[in-house]
Please model this.
Amino acid sequence: MNGTDSLLQIKGLRDGLLVSLDDAPWERQLAALIAQVDAQPSFFQGARLALDVASQTLHVNELVSLRDQLSERGISLWAVISESPTTEQTAQLLGLATRISKPRPEESRIYAVEHLGEETALFLDRTLRSGTRIEFAGHVVVLGDVNPGAEIVAEGNVVIWGRLRGMVYAGSKGNREAVVCALDFSPMQLRIADQTSAAAEIRTPSKPQVARINAQGILQVESWASG
Model:
């Protein structure tokens, strides 16, 4: 399975998670969803899940199979949103909701998930604005800026393909090998495992930088050079 096949979008709702799939073949989308659930069981355990299947036409056996597979993993399927009248009728027949309240912007988390061997990365193709908090049990890659007031907490590495002005906590479960990289490095606060630095302690020029814990156990920032 490549990155395109495993692309999912997940938004946090007040009462659960909204998972959006695209119009790729249903078998491939289902496999991607189940693979992601199995890769991050603690994240999905006990969740109430609403599924947006776009224009997929799904019948009773397909939705029952999905519901059963999710139920086996401790996940409750409570809603299916679709542009297909057939899918909508099928969902209603199974007692599933077909309408949900959209999340407010500040409640949304968009996760584009790609498997990297045994690890998982969270790709966010947008700028994180003040008030946004992202937590993920893996690596986090932001294709945009992290503005002041935004926060990222990751068990793995954090890579910012833009300006880092907010707060970042990498290696949140104690991984001292984790790193934080940004094209423009000026975080409000930076933490890796048990080491923390405030903005005043991170005086770097506006160029690509990487932060890591050095051999002496001290958090340091240095040039992020290729090669």
About this structure: The mean pLDDT is 80. The radius of gyration is 20 Å. The CA atoms of residues 8 and 33 lie 7 Å apart.
